[in-house]
Amino acid sequence: MNTYLALAESVRMINKGTHSILIDYDDTLEFIGKGRSAYVFKIEGTEVVLKVFFPDFAAVAKEEALIYQALGGLEYYPNLYEAGENYLVIDHVKGSTLFQCLQKGMPITENHLKEVDRALQLARNRGLNPSDIHLRNILITDAGDIKIIDVARYRQQKDCTQWDDLKNAFYVYYTRKHFPKKLPVVLLNTVAALYKRKMLPHYGGH
Ligand SMILES: Nc1ncnc2c1ncn2[C@@H]1O[C@H](COP(=O)(O)OP(=O)(O)O)[C@@H](O)[C@H]1O
Ligand SMILES: [Mg+2]
């Protein structure tokens, strides 16, 4: 089998300003996600994923590796197996992000939210300051457990209200009897974009 380093080196991308386009990657990699800083692939025949950061984000790779080490042994976070200059190898989480749950109409329960709170509290107990907690970074596994990924911003000083805002939205809207449990992806992305620009009346204004 190829080393993780060789697999990471097989990932080719071009970057245009803040945009990145994926050009090529090894046949044993299956593309499973893209975020603001990296492409993520499942490695065929294994239970791990390779997260390859965009060229300008090598510092984020290093930072995220340190944080995964600090979270080591907590069941709510993937284990880290290897960290390179621009990549990480972590457990593959079999399940759906909360974003995908809303898109597919898979129910999110109060208990799931309490589990996320527990996961974040355990991170705080280790001296971290969980940030960037949003729908694409929280997964519900096929067994119904919560896993949190993308922990790179857990050492920032600034307090992040995203998770509290999401919880509020859950209680104010989602739990209403007639609120649709399945939402079109364009609507989800529009709400996320408005939130980011602090254009929602009660959220993101701080
Ligand atoms: N360990 C994992 N298991 C399953 N899916 C993952 C895993 N890591 C990332 N993903 C998928 O890839 C997407 C991008 O990964 P993420 O770590 O959030 O990157 P970024 O730091 O660029 O936001 C996630 O939203 C998720 O859909
Ligand atoms: Mg992310």
UniProtKB/TrEMBL annotation:
Chain sites annotated for binding ATP: K62
Keyword ATP-binding attributed: yes
SUPFAM superfamilies: Protein kinase-like (PK-like)
Keywords, sorted A to Z: ATP-binding, Kinase, Nucleotide-binding, Transferase
GO molecular function, one term: ATP binding
Protein name as annotated: Putative Ser/Thr protein kinase
Lineage, broadest ranks: Bacteria, Bacillati, Bacillota, Bacilli, Bacillales
